[in-house]
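Risk register update: the risk that structure generation would not scale has been downgraded. Supporting records follow, first protein first.
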Amino acid sequence: MDEFIKAEILAVGTELLMGQIANTNAQHISARLPEVGIGVYYHTVVGDNPSRLKDCLELALKRADVVIMTGGLGPTKDDLTKETIAEFFGRKLVLHQESLQKIEAFFNKLNRTMTENNKKQAFLPEGSLIIENNNGTAPGCIIEDGKKVVIMLPGPPKEMKPMFDETVIGYFSKKASFKIVSRFLRIFGIGESAMEEKIIDLIDGQSNPTIAPYAKDGEVTLRITARCNNGREGEELIKPVIDEIRNRLGDAVYSIDNENLEEVTGKLLIKNNISISFAESCTGGLLSSRITEIPGISAVFSGSMVTYSNEIKAGCLGVSEDTLNTHGAVSSSTAKEMAVNIRKQMNTKLGVSVTGIAGPGGATENKPIGLVYVALADENDVACTELNLWGDRNRIRNNTVLNALDMIRRYILKNYK
């Protein structure tokens, strides 16, 4: 098969350089271009300066076949992307009547008067292919110049993303000599090094499909990518690799569809009609927040109690004062009582609790920062696991939530078919 077409993403906007906003457009574009045989080789960000923009474009066209630009298509004086690109290619800016009509209709719909400078957005380089904007006023365009392609898209993600997905991807799909199909395996409960050791022969022997591991936020993702003629062929190439990885890693692979842990766990709870409640200390409601992101979870999630102080653990949740005095709030004994009592109080099939030291203060010699207990109770028993986590407060709290969700997931897989 042919090699990847090389692409560069060129984002225009001083606000990006100053860190006022994140460049989520580049992330979205980079994730989708490989599907149509285009590899992103470079990311560039430049401010609203015509001279520097021209320099960046000249460099980009020397090292890439496709340049996708975002930003600088607005109505104000500092929005100079089209003007700079038109000058670079020696093309006039001409009025695109349909775009002007759409801009006028946009303002009429909002019962607002269109100012004269908004007409600027309807002027586009002659000979370009117009990309309609159904979520804003600035149309985009595609310029073909010999074997090079330059695409201009507006900066706001809510406008850029649908224009890219609906038009740009279709444009390249017709030109692609091959397709890229990727599947993402999400893994929890095994470190990146230990996981790699189990599948290193698969990684070393890869050709098509390829296997790329990366770690993030306490878990590991494997991207399995096949180069193919069509989606069906890609899936056929990928399936045996996924099957072999799952065979080796077992239930540490919690998703083969790039779902996050709360999605997988929430769907298992709903599918099996398992009611659940939480008692949270060090996570302060974060576990509840994550699970309630899942549509339909109200059918099984009854509620939670955030019990930070010992007084609330005892007075509201019913944890024994003797347990708190003898073992402390951060202990397996307290975690177990929290899980058992929240299940009883909320009359749910399962009760889950978390208690620990997220830092930066509160640690002792015997109970360091990162010591966390997670407990799960059903009507017959209660299990508790001790975690020794590391990192800052946010990392510890996030990893506590992941471990709690994984504990629930594994319990369901073991006890429900």
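Supporting record for the second protein:
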Amino acid sequence: MPFLSRVASAAARRAPIFVVVTTLLCGLTLALGYANKARCIGPEYDAEGRSTPNYGVRITRDVCYTDIQFLWLGRDVNEHVFPYVHGGYDAARGELYGGAVEYPVLTGLAIWVAALPSDTDGAFLTISAVLLSIAGLLSAAMLAWLAGLRSWWFALAPPLVLYAFHNWDLFAVACSVWACWILLRAARETGGIDRVRPLIVAALALGLGAGFKLYPAMFALPVACWLAAGAWRPGRADVGRGRRVLAGAGFLVGTGAVFALINLPFLIAGWRGWWASFQFQWSRPIDMTTNTLWFWLFRPYSNSGNEVVQDRLALAATIATLLGLLLAVGVGWLRYRRDRVYPWLPVCAAMLAAYLLLNKVHSPQFVLWLLPFFVLLRVRAGWILAYFVADAAIGIGFFRWQYLINSRLPDTTWDAFSPQAVLIGVWGRIALLIALFLVFSRAAVVEVPAPAPPRPASPRPDGPGAALDSAKGF
């Protein structure tokens, strides 16, 4: 097929036409994602702007639930309260109040901006979807330039349909992709960084990403190890270990400084409301909504009402997560001994797999965090498709199961398929994350295209080379 051949050729060259085609395809995927969530909008609204009728039934029965629409009420979003400044966390009731939300400050700002012109949960979801789509389209464009046809694992990914507008994660995803785009482009010729500017921009991207969702901050550590292991080459020359370590430490400090500067105004204006988001996440019980191994492995002792076990599981999850992240960094150093290059991007992906496996919360939309690494690392299609299937099983099965429970219909694994799908998804995802930790740690990075050589100037019609060039053309 000539069109597909041209697309494949453009993909191999990362031509602008291919980047545009990929971005348009991603736009279609995002449109499907919005259409899926919009099934829960309206058609009528109550006095508070909540969709009616039967909103509470439809979100689980029709599998169109989204945190964006749901949080229109309960966080003073509908009252257009500026976040964090006057809020706090009521530990006795386990609730946020006064405009505090359970997310980092840039996500809180995005929520406030989208809510300002909105008077219903439907309008709030629509405006949020527009803002998130910009982040998704930019991510698809950068991935298309970096990875060619592999970028379609992002642009056409089923998780984009299910979760692009489930929460506000696409902002952090775009920042992570931006950091990778900067570093991979800067290192495409020498395998290292010879200028300060790319490091400043990458640190800015990761710091901003952490301002939306905390996870991009952890990627600064593998990049710092990469710089310290020899990637810092000012003037394209090898430098001493001390200067390389200093460059790595500077990158860590820079990422942390960006995150700190973003948070500082909120900490000063209302530290209680700012701290409330961390209190809420730490106090969140490990229950069916978290869908991690900590809940399912220790059933029935992990019930949310068992406070002693809950505290111990939260502490165990925190320690295990930190150890998992350090293990990924250590495996990277083992690979460095063989290849003499620290594999920062594979380590970032392995760290993310460890985090998703061992953290106490694994929300459905977290699969979006993995999509860029499925693109940028040479991972076999079987692993990616298997993860998509397991993720869809738990993502769809969970809400259908909640519908059965809330409707007091038969809801055991002997009576319905949805609880079976959840168990298949939970344990399948756990097994796949363990395997992906190893797969990511060994994976190769996609080849980044080198800059096109400059075209020679055309000779003047009457110049000395005009006749020769004319003959070549003939």
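The chain has one domain: 2-448. On this basis the risk owner (M.S.) recommends closing the item.
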